[in-house]
Amino acid sequence: MANRQDGLAEALDNEQRTVQRLYARLDAARERAQAALRQVYAVGGALGGSRQAMVEREVAASEQARRLAQLNAVERGLCFGRIDDSGGASTYVGRIGLRDQDHESVLIDWRAPAARLFYVATATDPGGLVRRRHLHLKDRAVVGIDDEVFDLEGMSDGDRRTLVGEAALLAALRRGRTGRMADVVATIQIEQDRVIRSGLQGALVVQGGPGTGKTVAALHRAAYLLYTHRDTLERRGVLVVGPNPMFLRYIGQVLPALGETQVVMATVGELFPGVRAVAADPPVAAVVKGDLRMAEVVAAAVADRQRVPAGDLEVELDGLRLRVPHGVCARLRERARSVRLPHNMARKLYVTELLKELARAEARALEESLHLEELAVDDPELAEPLDLEGDLDEVDIALAAERLWGEEPVRRAVSELWPELTPQELVAGLLSSPETLWAVCPPGLDWTPLVRPRESPWTVGDVPLLDEAAELLGRDDSADRVAARRAGEEWAEQELYAREVLETTGLLEGGVFERADVLAERQADDGGGLTTAERAAADRAWAYGHVIVDEAQELSPMAWRTVIRRVPARSLTVVGDLAQTGSAAGARSWGEVLDPYLEGRWREERLLVNYRTPVEIMLVAADVLAAVAPWQEPPESVRDGGDEPRAVRLPVAELPGLVAAELAELGEGRLGIITPDALHAGVAALFPGAKDLDAPVVVLTVNQAKGLEFDGVVVVEPAGILEQSPMGGHDLYVAVTRATRRLTVAHEDDLPAMLSRLKSTM
Ligand SMILES: Nc1ncnc2c1ncn2[C@@H]1O[C@H](COP(=O)(O)OP(=O)(O)OP(=O)(O)O)[C@@H](O)[C@H]1O
């Protein structure tokens, strides 16, 4: 025993020395990046040099600043593993790659091919390794190690573990939840590694039950792809689409902790710059809005705004009546449509042509009025009709058209026939007009649930309609508008950033810059100083290099259209669980939603192990799954020995007592209270302050809880969750699979049959 202890102490000592050396290399790399940053600004004096030189300096500076940020991000847990091969060589694996003074590699980035064995070696297939070691660090000190020795000779069948680094994994899983997802770079499992390192090309679907690490694997995949395809992806950017803002906050720290800060995160409701939709439609309206036929509806609504007057077009101008025959108006509309340009662009052509017709009409009207005057003076000499129209040449017509465009009655008449439209005007107008909906919806599509007042707030389901409208109306200037609006905010941010740069680099003391605003101005000079991620987020038409869609089962067919438009290269990671589909407009099969765009050219990986929910809770969840998606196998839980789930019958008003008892059981842990939509406000009122993920208690609807997890969960009134929508059973499955340790069901109504395993106490 003493020998083993001595051996461990010695191993810790040795590893401590190595880790110290690695941190020294990290410090040296930081100093180099800081010096390089200082150098960039020092070259050519404070503000001198050509514009070209300045731009180059800014590019170099932002590269060094990014490097510095990355080196700072990897401080915690810099090195977490070591692999030893049968030839006696050891390789250390960490959050970043580092080299010594002789340029020899001393730490391998976890994403590099050489680090792969750390994740995929198993007892049955050790790939030439004799040992894998997990290092546990507290700050810069090695506080523990876990070894797996791949000694096939001495191993029985039962010993052949399927979990990689089991001890380290279980230790990671036992940690209390903080309200923010953490990276799992030290304990990635083989099936997750396959997802993470799958190629960039094409679409990868990751289907897996609750807690199988779909989200965490997808985020590590983003980091892996950025590392492996840095050039392409930094230029084009990576977009992560999540189900709601709370979820995006929950996962928001994972990529920065992996040194990657240039990823855009958005809900579908945020994909249209300038609109921030959070409200949800009632299920019936969501289904209609999400139907692919809505693309035709929007197209028909645009066409409906390109009109021909009922009779001739008549415009009163300075006592003259300009008349363009109905047939001519119809011909002009056909001609403008036939160029197949978006509405607002084709409008230019239409307006030009119509103004020319109006110019001719004006000449005719003038002729006519002169003729009448002449008739009135009764001079047969002068009564010969004039031919003013015939006398006009092209230049006269163009000049007259230009003059007419300045006349309000003309503008009004033209705009009634072919108005300039924003997507917002078109969609708000369409949804508030039963007559238009009736006229433009195809038979069989029940448009009645769509009707609403014109000033209604935007819903998430509106965003794909706005996006569709933007495509049909023409390249919009949303990026410019957002940029203009942000210009003010940006300046404040620029200055703050510049101040930080000055402080971290010491440029302030060096006297290179005295004022942060001077530096900020120079940064602003370079295309507004926006990063790829910022430019991409502000531009509706941005083409991303890769898009990750999480909780992808929730997207409607129309939402898919919007997302796919963002990634012309069709390089996608689609992550979800069809048994958790809560939206009535959501997916029932991956083929159904993806085939229209990918024609079967997508591959699927399945994740089968549940890292969140203990066996005891999963038994309850499995009953729900059997009732709502009997074709799906529940995932297998890694954890066991959790507390027995229970049900308590009590009125909602008594929840605070139950929650206090649950918190006492959890000790340090955090608790989520999940309610039916209808009870949410009432329950939230019982727990003031329980709104944010950082609070010890948070009250959520199932929709808000999607993708999140808590040490303990209280599910309130499951019968209400079941009944709240056609997908209520799926919602209940989501609710009962959020806990890592304790699940308690609080109910006043009878428990649904699918929860009969729970014995209710008063
Ligand atoms: N390899 C791993 N090492 C340590 N923890 C892991 C690992 N894989 C998953 N986890 C943890 O398991 C939990 C569930 O992971 P995640 O949220 O990614 O699952 P999910 O499949 O997206 O779940 P859901 O479908 O319910 O949203 C998280 O706390 C995650 O950190």
UniProtKB/TrEMBL annotation:
Gene3D superfamilies (UniProt xref): P-loop containing nucleotide triphosphate hydrolases
Coiled coil, from the record: 12-39
Annotated UvrD-like helicase ATP-binding domain residues: 187-614
Residues engaged in binding ATP: G208, G209, P210, G211, T212, G213, K214, T215
Keywords: ATP-binding, Coiled coil, Helicase, Hydrolase, Nucleotide-binding
Highest taxon above the source species: Bacteria
PROSITE patterns: UVRD_HELICASE_ATP_BIND
Protein name (record): HelD family protein
PANTHER family found in the cross-reference section: DNA 3'-5' HELICASE, UVRD / RECB / PCRA DNA HELICASE FAMILY MEMBER
